[in-house]
Amino acid sequence: MESLLWGVVGYLFGSIPFSYIIPKLRGIDVRTVGSGNVGGTNALRAAGFPWGVLAMFLDGAKGFIPAILALHYGSMWLAIVAATLAVVGHDYPVWLGFKGGKGVGSTVGAYFAICPSGGWVFLISWLVLVLSTKIVSVSSLIALLLASIAGYLIGGSQVGTWGLAMLLLSVFQHRSNISRLIKGSERKTDLIELVRRSIRK
Question: For the whole prediction, is pTM greater than 0.70?
Answer without folding.
Answer: yes
